[in-house]
């Protein structure tokens, strides 16, 4: 796991200053504290920061191919590199290292862009081919590893693993994109379709770019997609056996490392499944770690301990205080772009705990998206059945009126919180799912935006890209389309961004076995009843893991990392809440009505409504804009 950065001239191949590339790499030194390197040639410069995981001393980067005709910088892991190396060797390739980087170079020289479909793993890399005078940028199928890029006024394109690598370049403009602010307020993160800075792009997961000297900036090309259009046939027992095989294969392939390896263990189904399968194939106790809160209702460490005892793991846990909000500025620095998933804080803390003993940690991320594990998936399937019975022309006025009249009862039991359900049923399947997934609904965003910002935003709404993604999905049903959107939009924008930044901030490699693409493709083909059944998500996975996990782990309500931000904004952060609308960076933008923000804060502090997620969004936006020095 590493950090990469570089400069490529699309126009005349001008000399590249190595010191400029080095500064870009130094900005992401936390991603690779074990080594660094820079290589330049006319019109191109590649930089690398290394976190040594495999072939600790033998694979420095930038790396040249055996014949010296290609140069590579690479962030990630290729889990099938040994098999590929043997195949390439039989075809005449020569290797001088024992790592996966040299295999990528040989695969590029043998197969060109088609090498991507042969790589199993997580990666973002750049290859400069001296013979073809091209720069090949590629990102893994699901976007586990990030890659930012931006064309500059001097005719160059810069790229890097994090936005801070790009902001280290003096020619990058720091002007905020108002549409990215709308996206951020909608989702709590800036999705891969946009960046907080105008002109900066993110190469989407499953895409590549092939840049040439003396040629214009091309569009990215999609090289992988997941289809929900087919349905797997077979008995439940056969599909269960196939799923178990894929789970074992995914976990064991990610246990290869030349450094200490462990796992995150929350006590939920996914991380517990990963730990169980690790223990099954490990000769020594698995190193596990978990984070809890000093608020009993939010603490899951007891469930984690139950699994640790069951599999005799070498387990460590740590309690995070309610007063851990002092890390707000650290989070803003870590993510660069505004990022308001409050579970980033405990994720960072568990990464810090893991890094004390291991360099690689396996996580349970991805199963909810692939196997329909969220409550919203169950709701989507049920709501679509009702949508199929009543035409939109009838649903929109009836349920729209009910949704408008029903109070927002955050304090009530879940069964009585019908407002969002009514509003969802009043909309199309895509609109309803976007509402269920979004953080701040459009009517609340409109309430806090200033007239000037509303003019900048125009007709654009943050929900539109997700709705369009669902409409174009290779899918059969509303549930299919919802899961497709999760995998292509929510997962890389929120979950994978959170884990990447939090782990790399402490120089820890996080691996996601449940995002093995073979497992994802299998899950997408499952009949709907094997995904959701009797109000339960991940039905087949839970059935498959019964031999490993007890029912109180498999069937307890999903919780995940929950941060007590609602209590913070009514207690130690109450003054921050009152001042958010007049925060230095936010006030300079003129984007928000400070009076409306103050009313929202006052209502939350008084306990009349839970506005903590919006307040957290605005607080993190203020901190991020301040750190980036962004002009509104």
What is the CATH first-level class name of the domain at 2-176 and 194-222?
Alpha Beta
Rg for CA atoms: 24 Å
Distance between the termini: 35 Å
Give the helix tally.
27
- CATH topology grouping of the domain at 2-176 and 194-222: Glutamine Phosphoribosylpyrophosphate, subunit 1, domain 1
Can you walk through the features of this model?
- With 632 residues, this protein is of the alpha+beta class.
- Among the domains are: 2-176 and 194-222, Glutamine Phosphoribosylpyrophosphate, subunit 1, domain 1 (4-Layer Sandwich); 236-324 and 333-372 and 487-554, 3-Layer(aba) Sandwich (Rossmann fold), CATH 3.40.50.
- The chain contains 27 helices and 17 strands.
- The strands form three sheets. A six-stranded antiparallel β-sheet has the order 2-3-1-9-8-10. Strands 4-5-6-7-11-12 form a six-stranded antiparallel β-sheet, covered by helices on one side.
- Helix 9 (328-335) crosses helix 27 and helix 15 (429-437) packs across helix 18.
- It is globular, with a radius of gyration of 24 Å.
Short note summarizing the structure:
This protein is of the alpha+beta class and 632 residues long. Helix content is 43%, strand content 14%.
